[in-house]
Design a protein that fits this description.
Chains A, B: One of its GO terms (molecular function) is ATP binding. The structure is a homodimer. The first copy, chain A, has two domains: about 210 residues, Rossmann fold; about 200 residues, Dihydrodipicolinate Reductase, domain 2 (2-Layer Sandwich), CATH 3.30.360. In chain A, about 35% of the residues lie in helices and about 25% in strands. In chain A, strands 7, 10, 11, 12, 13, 14, 18, 19 and 21 form a nine-stranded mixed beta sheet that branches. In chain A, strands 3-2-1-4-5-6-20 form a seven-stranded parallel beta sheet, sandwiched between helices. In chain A, strand 2, helix 2 and strand 3 form a beta-alpha-beta unit. The longest helix of chain A is centred in the last third of the chain and has 19 residues.
């Protein structure tokens, strides 16, 4: 089966996904749709320039906040898969729009949470993905697949969880996603500047929301932001980084399919970034609801994001590596205690040279393309609202790591501790 | 002579100035003008409610960015004095508009600076007040007075400088304005919240601009922000606060009229506020030029200010005292070394009870009203662009401190160290 993909969003991740996909043969049509059609056109021009005779990519304009617009565009292009590559605030309209068009759906972050009204730092309210899982039965009954959280984190981290459960561990104490980097951005004069490598809107959302933790027998619960600080030693020269609990999809996904005693997500924010997020919260600049400023209405969080460099543009001024991975503790298949970090490191110099994409964006983008290829081959198949850990991890990890042109040439590692 | 005052701006300071003035008899007309006429009307209603038969206050709408609009309104009301009570970014239009109307002028902050293009943290560029002093000769030739910087700081601090030179010191080593407070703001649930007691726009301006210092033989020069940290012990229970150099008018005013070896201004920002200002700078949120956010144009600094509580509204939820003062070191009239802190402390509880105004705003507002009364009496007179230290300090300090109804009932203190 050759897929017909409608990709919504050609920001950093969408653009990189199109560039990665252009090297593969599993699809016959890839529609690059964006609210700003000039961005979509730029992405299409870039991928056409990468490969002689490339005619599979077309651009389109779309309002991602309108399920009807998504449905109409999917039907127009006979899309088999709608691939959501925009901020998660648009998840539900794209998710609903894909279903109405009879297309399968993929995203890299799940529907947004709402904190518990009385006890936000102890109990969960509406959880990440709740709105999507609420209609899982309908998706399954219709034979349609919504593969949610298939970026790098969530995504590859969840694949690692399934791999650890199937092949490395007899019993798992903790599935602990740990994310860290040693990325530095410089300005034109060579001075180090603050420039987040990922969407600032999303970073604020996940870091200032109450972090969620799962424990067997207790279920999901929340803590205060930046809880349980831990210095984690990342591989391949990145070294120790201070990590803290944040709200992340892995904690909502992994317990549904993988047996463990505890599931956590800690992000290597580092001291400076934690300080910045605390100040934004103190000043009320993390808020998403509009305020009136000299007669115009703006969301403070949108202003914070707009004042910073676009993460998609900082690649040329960035150096360093980023690491996504899963630290698993428990009892190995041999019955002895085991502590294993499964990880994927990407060097910014390599993704810039190969794809003109900065490493965090590229690392997010490669995973849904691998998943789409497995779905095209029929290696992965399913119906309902499923996380990456619902599928066999081995073909995914093999295809990701295999050298080009068979695979994606992006190896992952295992570090026994 | 009974004055006819056109006050531009009825934010926190303008509103408090009108309330303070309503107890005095030196004027026959006080026009409260604001871009938002409902704010002006609210102030007029408040002062009319304070005194039976009060008919001297009227409201008006004005665009402070238009010199022509200021001139027209001043002529319409036969204003003898235009009192500028808005953000200093509007200084030049009000200053020029007053002169064109043949009125005298008062402000509480001087025209804005521009940093040195190549060496911002070593050399001055355009200095605070430069644009105003550039036309001092014309004001003097026309017999008109622009009394600049007559709030509390600058203002009362400059009066203290003149007093120290005339009555306390034979020779002055340093005129060091030192400002600190122990103010705390609570939310409705009693939790401490971050809520600056003065215009955030202006606080960012003065704290992130390169601080200016003056030294005899060297003149004015700049340093990096937050330089020369010093823990200063404030009187009346406030205690020690960390103070750092900031850009402030006193450093530009005092050397023009008072003999000293060094002139500095240090602000008791405290650690948290310094950290917040550094983050705003890191994120580019201190910038005043507009950026595009989801199709609308806004200045990031305006957004920061709008996201915080209006300083004029936090009085009821605030406790503590604020202190403005001048630390003078040198040789006393008796030829012996002397270190004297001249200061003015205001308790928020008192200004709220007496004027429904928070203390920092009230402390700023009282000084121009005292000055206007001295000008009305003819005790203070002059022509040109003059700072408060160009006038005899004694009648000002006496009128400020004297009990009501003769004076303003707000004593100042001397602390020998």
């Amino acid at each position: 089966m050759f897929l017909r993909v409608l990709m919504i969003g050609s920001g950093g991740v969408g653009d990189a996904a199109a560039r990665i996909a252009s090297e593969r043969d599993f699809f016959e049509r890839w529609v690059v749709a964006d609210y700003d059609v000039t961005r979509a056109e730029r992405t299409v021009a870039a991928v056409v320039g990468r490969r002689a005779g490339e005619g599979r990519f077309v651009s389109a304009q779309v309002d991602a906040s309108s399920a009807e617009a998504v449905t109409q565009l999917a039907l127009e292009h006979s899309a088999t898969h709608v691939f959501n590559a925009v901020d998660p605030k648009f998840n539900m309209s794209i998710f609903d729009g894909a279903r109405a068009a009879g297309a399968d759906y993929l995203d890299m972050a799940m529907s947004l949470s709402q904190r518990h009204p009385e006890r936000p730092y102890e109990e969960v309210g509406v959880m990440l993905g709740d709105e999507q899982f609420a209609v899982a039965d309908e998706w399954e009954a219709e034979g349609r697949l919504a593969l949610v959280g298939i970026g790098v984190e969530p995504g590859l981290s969840d694949v690692f969880a399934r791999y650890a459960a199937d092949h490395l561990f007899e019993q798992i104490d903790e599935l602990g996603t740990r994310d860290g980097a040693n990325l530095v951005v410089h300005d034109d004069d060579g001075n180090e500047v603050f420039a987040p490598s990922f969407s600032m809107w999303t970073t604020i959302e996940e870091c200032l929301n109450p972090p969620v933790v799962w424990e067997k027998g207790r279920g999901w619960f929340t803590t205060a932001p930046f809880s349980e600080p831990e210095v984690f030693d990342f591989p391949e020269g990145i070294g120790p980084v201070e990590c803290v609990n944040v709200e992340h999809e892995e904690v909502l996904l992994m317990p549904r399919w993988v047996d463990a005693r505890r599931v956590t997500f800690k992000y290597g924010l580092g001291d400076e970034f934690i300080g910045i997020l605390k100040v934004l919260n103190t000043l009320g600049l993390d808020r998403t609801s509009p305020i009136t400023v000299k007669g115009v209405e703006v969301s403070p969080r949108d202003v914070v994001a707009a004042a910073l460099p676009d993460p998609a543009t900082i690649g040329p001024r960035m150096t360093g590596k980023t690491c996504a991975g899963l630290y698993v503790t428990g009892t190995g298949k041999d019955g002895r205690p085991r502590r294993t970090y499964l990880y994927h490191v990407v060097d910014n110099a390599e993704t810039m040279a190969g794809y003109d994409a900065q490493c965090v964006v590229w690392q997010t983008a490669v995973n849904p393309v691998v998943a789409l290829e497995l779905l095209a081959r029929g290696t992965w198949k399913g119906a309902g609202v499923l996380g990456p850990e619902a599928f066999d991890a081995v073909p995914f990890l093999d295809l990701l790591a295999a050298a080009k042109p068979e695979g994606y040439g992006s190896p992952w590692g295992i570090d026994e501790r």
